[in-house]
cAMP-dependent protein kinase (Dactylellina haptotyla), 477 residues
Amino acid sequence: MRGVKLDPTVSSIPWEPPVNYNSRNVEGVSGLEKDSFMPTLGSVFKSKKKKDKETTRLKDTNGNPDTIPEDSPVTPSTERSLSQSLASAPSTATTANSQAGGTLSHTTTATSQTPTSPVATTDTKMTTPAGADSQTTPGHTSTESGSQKTETVYRATKGKYTLSDFTFQRTLGTGSFGRVHLVQSKHNLRFYAVKVLKKAQVVKMKQVEHTNDERRMLQRVKHPFLITLWGTFQDSKNLYMVMDFIEGGELFSLLRKSQRFPNPVAKFYAAEVALALDYLHSLNIIYRDLKPENLLLDRHGHLKITDFGFAKEVPDITWTLCGTPDYLAPEVVASKGYNKSVDWWSLGILIFEMLCGYTPFWDGGSPMKIYENILRGRVKYPAYIHPDAMDLLQQLITPDLTKRLGNLYHGSKSVLEHPWFAEVNWERLLSKQIEPPYVPPVRGGIGDASLFDKYPEETEEYGKEGPDHHGHFFTDF
Ligand SMILES: Nc1ncnc2c1ncn2[C@@H]1O[C@H](COP(=O)(O)OP(=O)(O)OP(=O)(O)O)[C@@H](O)[C@H]1O
């Protein structure tokens, strides 16, 4: 049972009583087949990805109060400084405004791990570091996207490490087929996150293609707001993916603590996500699993998108039914062919959720209810949503693909140039020169995982020798 740690003071604020809200991830294929309008062809879901993430979702029934709780980690007091900072350079002042354990709107000087290969310095087999500092292969390509020059990078990831390169520590999160561990490199003593997937489980859940896609997509991407994959390896039972450890926890936890974000705070996170989507789409990659659970905060408060389990290279259209019910676009629900436009729909859902504290089509019922609501397409916008934000949301959360922003002639440019984002200086944002609205209270220096929930640890030892029945499915690891 995963419990989001709610701030103990939250209950004293004037909000609707918490509604018990379970994870919005789908139950798996069988859950979908129950409903006649749901397609079964090609339905591939990870089984309830965070099924044990029992959490509290605040649903507005009579209109939410316009106030953000004072004890929220992102209070309205940050609004002015943030909207100023979205356009300008961060001040060098470091006036700590610490609330609810986090530090708001100040320039951080925290020392942080710069991206470094786990065995870059001492291990000769790793003299070419992967990830953010990696070199591109001679065959790389460049394209201009909405606001960014993108490069297709192909990093070598296969078999780069072994289990003995790392000391495994606690679990940071669990998924349908495995878990993510905090690990320490025995070579440079830095901390990383290693995703461990059980091969048998991946095969059983028919996720071989998605898992190989995840590795391949992560291998290709290189962007400030996307997680870096350093390398992969496998043993007889498990697959391992070595990533940067992102210390600040999930945006999901921050949002639940805050209930909802002030307009400029939501705008900051939405803008970083929009840049990441713009980049992915320039590589013809659809992400397909946008939601606050997959957005991690680095120690400075910038976003990193993780979990590329549904990311796929799709030059034109695809039909695979996958994602998370609340975030599915109607064309996915209706089993039509779809393209990158589904990510822009999901961005709309994400912005709505950040501004309101709940998703627009959720009604406390089953995923089927959510699908019905999505297909019905009626969205109730609370009065406190800024008019510009509402205009953007109406153009993102539209079933009409000829009208959906991001899917029109100018592509992602039309999203980035929308009036809600008017004050965003995209170049500065991309180079992380805009100060984030919230600095996670990462204590204890590097390797501090206190912002992550606790999980029961794996009981089965990693690296055991034995027959490898599934290795042939994962030859690229
Ligand atoms: N690089 C990272 N740094 C810190 N924590 C991470 C990192 N990657 C993942 N996590 C944590 O682990 C959790 C599970 O990761 P992820 O969603 O990638 O796993 P998964 O097995 O693909 O799950 P699912 O079945 O939901 O797809 C995340 O929600 C996050 O809390």
